[in-house]
Structures are given as C-alpha cells and as structure tokens.
Amino acid sequence: MTSLEGKTALVSGAADGLGEAIAARLAADGARVVVLDRSPDAIERSSARPEMANVHFEQVDLSNAEEIASVVHRLHDAGFGFDILVNNAGGSLHTPRAFVEETDEDWARVMDLNVTAAVRLIRATVPGMVERRHGRIVNLGSKAGRYGSLFTGANYVAAKGAVQSMTLQLAQEFGPHGITCNAVCPGAILTPRVERLLSERQSPEERAAVLASIPVRRHGRVEDVAAAVAFFASDETGFITGQLLDVNGGQGMAS
Ligand SMILES: NC(=O)c1ccc[n+]([C@@H]2O[C@H](COP(=O)([O-])OP(=O)(O)OC[C@H]3O[C@@H](n4cnc5c(N)ncnc54)[C@H](O)[C@@H]3O)[C@@H](O)[C@H]2O)c1
Q: What family is it from (predicted)?
C-alpha cells in the first residue's frame, strides 16, 4: 500500500468501472478523492458503497467544455487543489469496429471523451500543481492504443494512441515543475459492460483463443488497474515519468 495521506485526487468518469476502483483505491491509500461522472444513477449507486464513503462526487458531462470549466471552478472555490489527476473517462462508446462503418460523429465523440476531456482537465488542474511544485497525472491508455484491438475500432485505437503520445510530451514539459505524467494501458478488464461487449463481438471459440494468448491465463480485474494507478500517483515514483505501463497479463509486450 502506498500512502497518499494529505493528497487530493481528481478521477474522471469514476462512478463505475475502472474509475470507481481507482477512486476507491486512492481513497483507501489516504487521499481525499473527487469523482466526476455524468450518470446520476451511477453516482447514486457508487456513493452508497462503504469504500466510497469519503469520496466527493460531482455530476458533469466531460464532453462539454463549459461543464468542465464550471466544475473545476466550483471545486477550486470549495478549497480543492489537486495533487493527482487521473484521466480515466473514455472508451469506444460502442461505435462500430469496422473502419468503413465509423462515421465522423463516431470519431468526434470518441476523440472528445478520450482526448479532449483529458486535455481540458489537465489544463484546468496543472497550474495548481505548478504552484505547489508537485503533481501526478495518470492517463488511461489501452492495449488497443499500443497494439491494436480485436474488438474495438480505429477511432478508439487512434484516440488512445493520442493520449499515450500526449503523455510523453507532457512528461517533458511538466517534469521541471515536479509533475510526472504516465499512462496505464490495460488489456480487457472484465467489467459487466466489457463482458457484454465481448459476448456480442466474439464467439466462445474466439474468447477461448484470446484467453489462451494471455500468459497469466485470465482477464484483468479492476483492482489490477487501480494498483498501477496508485503506483504512479505515489510520492515515491517521482523519478518515473513519460512511461506507458501495460496491465494486460502479458498479452502485449514490448522491449
Ligand atoms: N474496461 C476495459 O476493459 C478497458 C481496457 C482498456 C482501457 N480502458 C479505459 O479505461 C477507462 C475506463 O473504462 P471503463 O470500461 O471503466 O469505462 P465505462 O464505460 O464503464 O465508464 C465509466 C464511467 O464513465 C462515465 N462516463 C461516460 N461518459 C461520460 C461523460 N461524457 N462524462 C462523464 N462521465 C462519463 C460513466 O457514467 C461511467 O460511470 C477508459 O478510458 C477506457 O478506455 C478500459
């Protein structure tokens, strides 16, 4: 366990799925955590969980520039200054896998949530980190963005590639200010939503073949991703920046 006592973290898209596990883990490690999420139902369900008892929730649509600006202002006025930012909101938004079926609107939606929302949140929180000469930015990349995908399309792969490349550049730019910027790149993590997507898009035989291609012979769990984020969020990892960490059971490896 790393200690995040005295630190404040902002986690986007975190009332469900990976983000919720990340928020719970950072809170368990001692951080004061703020979750941004669009869904009132998810917020209601998540805020009732005992591990989220001390987490602060804000309802916001992260595809909307004005909503992002206004929530960060509101949080700033309420005394929140962020040491840790986790850009978790993202996904393929159930757009088609086949490139020729992806519309301009599909591309715009996927880019907006995965890339532009992260850009806006970084822009809104980094001045405070520069002032405090300390910050930890952790972006969610993906195995898809590193190695391509078996069940999501080119828009999602390209969006995660952009997030990953931006991570390297921001590590360069913010390093002199005591701010690290890294990305966690998960393989398929079996949330109920991903379970549904996999069973829609893969036959049982294809699923068995995928599992056989994972050296640790299991899919990922949300806790696997949360542990990697907690590592990058900690004070101890100040010499590690601009890194893309694969969390995929060895399914994709690079030397
Ligand atoms: N689940 C996986 O297998 C997997 C694998 C690799 C990478 N990732 C990445 O991890 C991150 C989290 O994935 P997930 O599967 O937990 O996501 P998810 O689709 O389950 O969504 C998690 C939360 O994001 C919220 N959200 C969606 N759109 C929003 C918006 N416009 N504004 C605010 N909140 C919004 C949802 O309400 C939900 O509570 C994403 O960036 C995803 O690309 C996931």
A: Belongs to the short-chain dehydrogenases/reductases (SDR) family.
CA distance 20 to 12: 9
Instruction: Classify the C-alpha dihedral 197-109-87-164 as positive or negative.
Output: positive
Could you report the per-residue pLDDT of 90-147, keeping only the tens digit for each?
A: 999 999 999 999 999 999 999 999 999 999 999 999 999 999 999 999 999 999 999 9
Residue 112 Cβ contacting ligand 1 at under 6 Å: no
Q: Pick the catalytic residue: 156, 224, 241, 246?
A: 156
Phi and psi (nearest 5°) for 32?
-85, 125
Structural domains of the chain sorted by starting position, each given as residue range(s) with its CATH number in brackets: 8-187+222-244 (3.40.50.720)
**pLDDT tens-digit series, residues 37-58:** 999 999 999 999 999 999 999 9
Q: What is the pLDDT of residue 202?
A: 86
Decide if 19 contacts 89 (C-beta within 8 A). Answer: yes
With a 6 Å cutoff on the Cβ, whether 193 touches ligand 1 is yes
